[in-house]
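Notes, Module 5: Reading structure tokens.

Key idea: the token line is not a picture. It is a compressed description, and you learn to read it the same way you learned to read a sequence, by spotting repeated patterns. We will look at two proteins. The first is printed below with its tokens.
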Amino acid sequence: MAKQRRLFCEIHPFFYYLSGQKQILSRTLTNFKQKKSFASLKSPTPLPCLIYKVSSKLIKTGPGVDPVLQYNKADNIRLASKKIDGIIIRPNEEFSWWHLVGKTNRKNGYKKGRVIEQGKVIGGYGGGLCNLANTINLLILHSPLIISEFHMHTDALSPDMGKRVPLANGTSIMYNYLDYRFINTTNQDFQLKLYLDDTYSYGELRAQRALDYHYNIIEEDLHYKQVDGKYYRKSMIYKLTLDKNDTVIAKDLIVKNNSEVMFDYNLIPKEEIR
């Protein structure tokens, strides 16, 4: 079997850094040429109607989980949440994560949290903010707002704790070329509210008026499969649109999950391996 050629950016960390800088410059030029106007109006006053709410445990524990990176992640989430909390997305406006959050470096107060680099979990400044981006993604999936940019890394970073929630993690962001964006194509304002306590981070999607429909995320055919010595979590994830009588009027495939398992293979539920 022929040996697989390595990408230039995989040869040395410096080349990986250069590759990232090239992508940042390319995205900066693209943003400039497009001259997009992103949502920027913020209000401390919540809009009256709660559409959906999500909570996420700040500190994960368990085998192979670095507690220092977890506590740093919580601090990073607090910083970034303040940049986004209260943002109003008016009709025809687009939300951009990086437009609001900006650079997540040491100079701006961010610490080293858990990041995925070249297929490995390491410490990096701003690490753990994918958790916050994921909270926002879950809010938007439970609404009529249209996701215009989404990137996904593995959702199998650690074993599931308790009942599995589809897409509870996996949203990928990287300054500034991996953005998370969505567009308000409705005729009313929406708002994101983000806040934390000592144990959980919370996200709310609010609007001016109640919606005619509600939404559920379901997962089918969840299992693990071994390919070339590595295990992958595989499933089909759908978004259901339901009317006020809970009748399903649409079922849309949103993710065909094929996530590399990054935790100890011995912790994979044996009954879910095929």
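Here is the second protein, with the sequence above and the tokens below, as before.
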Amino acid sequence: MPETHPFDDAIALQWQFESGHRGETSPAYANMVGPFGGITAAQTLNAVLQHPQCQGEPVAMTKNFCAAVADGAFHIIARPVRTNRSTQHWIVETIQNGECVIAATVFTALRRDTWHAPEHAKPEVPSPADVPLRGGRPRVEWINRYEMRFIEGAIPAHWDGSGATASLSRLWMRDQPARGLDYPALAAMADVFFPRIWRRRATLAPAGTVSLTVYFHADRDLLVTTGTGYVLGQAQAQAFRKGYFDQTAQLWNEAGDLLATSHQVVYFRE
């Protein structure tokens, strides 16, 4: 029997009717404290996609971290609060030890053919084959689950306070080992970017995402077309002030299709 991909193991959920889905954190996606935020986003979305009442494809997801997610078991309770002819609205809670640690909303819809046009074009960058693999030994395990090729704005090599004048990072990425792209994987990739304050200041300041929103522009056919190819990710902050900053991100496939955009608010301490 073939082995399952580490990502599929990590987002696997057991349906338990009234109590929702049960899952376990995966050591393969461990972060400094608890699991990688992207994998919890994928688990949240997967609970909706696996729900027997789910209609359509995800269009948007907002995930608020109410408390740190601990290693171990959790329950995800996903419930549709409104179903219309072509749209559906969900409230999703992740519960550990009887307390809510993640509160999320998900918006799904039956997509229809309309006029479409790109507005945020893929930047001109070298092809993945022309960009070296990320070097060095990662501080956390989840980074080993991704093939990363930084074009600019890699994680600082020296934590010396030198920093950069802008927080922009660009990189080619894909699952390691390669895996066909789907919505949970795309949601996880939207959170691959390290905190922008590390890029700006080259100081290992404690930081963590408080709220993450992902907008899915790709339909399932486009995800299938993208397949196991590389995804170009770009992220940059807009302001740092009084212990919080935000960062926006865009994800394109190699053909230049904008697959998803995201926005998150992050706290930091000094």
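Summary for the second protein:
- The chain has one domain: 6-111+127-268.
- Residues 91 and 105 are 5 Å apart (CA to CA).
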